[in-house]
Design a protein that fits this description.
sulfite transmembrane transporter activity; single chain; mainly alpha; Glycosyltransferase; globular
């Protein structure tokens, strides 16, 4: 039987080689917990299963956060290569997005157990998430404009990761706001709409570039196979954000001068969400075609495979919510099929992640390898 971490020769190598791409694991796992909780036919068993996944995800996030902080403190020389790497820096967006799944779960699962204290914690963490999301959405593009090396033929949808983070926080605002006092809820909702606007406007621009790149330079290598699913993420999150924000608006603004606007936000949000759902569906079908083509090649596993999970999970959540809001039966079977597919993909990706973790294969930071190569030349 092979020894664990056989590829890690030096002490604390797993800290030095830790990358923010590990937070994609928390994105997919946390989103799966939310999907299980959203099953319309779910009972007590499904609720406990969803809560178990959420708790497991909380442990993962805490562990990854400690490793990431330890890397920054103990190996400060690795920070610059990470920030300047044209791919690894994008995964900084996975940190606030993974945190957002914990905040949603804290509202859904924590409040029934711990009451007001869980709500206070969720509220505070949400503002932290906003700060992290905006920080990443500003820092990474600035580095792209000034320091990093990019070209159109190298572009992939991984560029979406840092700018989608504010949109994920916006969707979480709609989950949190109904549990807050009206004044606090109004602050959260207005901030949520601002975040939604910042993120989706940039996402549309990048999705256009992704479409152009694919038409001119065809599919990227199989190591980037999961990136074909990433455009589904901002479109589905935008759909879910409009639904959750709009649903929370009337109660938060009742009795204020914006009562009419709040009702309009709810109704327009439903129409807008249908438009975004249709756009996300096109990209999902196209992602399936692209993945089928990649499967004919030698697809070696990497942490980017977690990109198969989060976009699909958010699209599933949006589909369940549309079924509840519209009452149209079509959305129910589609959401059920999506949820089943998500569960199967999560099991496959998690199994490969655990195997890679056992052998230490996943503790190899590409940014450090690239920096070492440059120093030799």
């Amino acid at each position: 039987m092979p020894r664990p971490f056989t590829r890690l020769a030096e002490p604390l190598a797993f800290v030095r080689q830790f990358t923010p791409s590990w937070f994609a694991v928390t994105m997919g796992t946390g989103a799966l917990a939310l999907v299980i909780a959203a099953l319309p036919w779910g009972g007590a068993l499904e609720r406990r299963l969803a809560e178990g996944f959420w708790l497991f995800n909380a442990v993962l996030f805490a562990g990854f956060a400690l490793l990431f902080i330890a890397r920054i403190l103990l190996f400060r020389d690795t920070l610059r290569p990470m920030l300047l790497h044209p791919v690894q820096s994008m995964f900084l967006g996975a940190i606030p997005m993974g945190l957002a799944t914990l905040i949603n779960g804290l509202v859904l699962f924590g409040v029934p157990h711990w009451g007001e204290s869980a709500l206070v914690l969720a509220h505070g963490l949400w503002w932290l998430d906003v700060a992290l999301a905006l920080g990443v959405a500003l820092l990474v593009p600035y580095l792209m404009f000034t320091r990093q090396d990019h070209a159109l033929e190298k572009l992939t949808a991984v560029w979406l990761l840092p700018i989608v983070a504010p949109e994920v926080a916006a969707a979480a605002a709609g989950v949190l706001a109904p549990h807050l006092e009206p004044e606090a809820a109004r602050q959260v909702l207005v901030t949520g709409y601002l975040l939604w606007g910042v993120s989706l406007s940039l996402a549309f621009s990048l999705i256009t570039l992704v479409l152009l790149r694919l038409a001119l330079h065809k599919l990227p290598g199989s190591e980037f196979a999961a990136t074909s699913w990433l455009p589904v993420g901002p479109l589905a999150t935008g759909c879910l954000g409009l639904l959750s924000l709009g649903k929370a608006m009337p109660a938060a603004f009742a009795g204020t001068a914006l009562t009419g606007v709040a009702d309009l936000a709810r109704d327009v949000g439903l129409i807008g969400s249908l438009l975004l759902w249709g756009a996300a569906l096109w990209w999902l079908v196209m992602a399936l075609f692209c993945t089928r083509r990649h499967l004919r090649q030698d697809m070696r596993f990497n942490l980017g495979w977690w990109g198969f999970t989060f976009p699909l999970a958010v699209f599933t959540l949006a589909t369940f919510e549309l079924q509840r809001r519209t009452g149209i039966a079509f959305f129910g079977p589609v959401a059920a099929a999506l949820a089943l597919g998500l569960a199967l993909i999560w099991l496959q990706v998690m199994a490969r992640t655990l195997a890679g973790l056992w052998h230490g294969e996943l503790f190899q930071a590409p940014c450090l390898a690239a920096a070492a190569g440059l120093s030799r030349t």
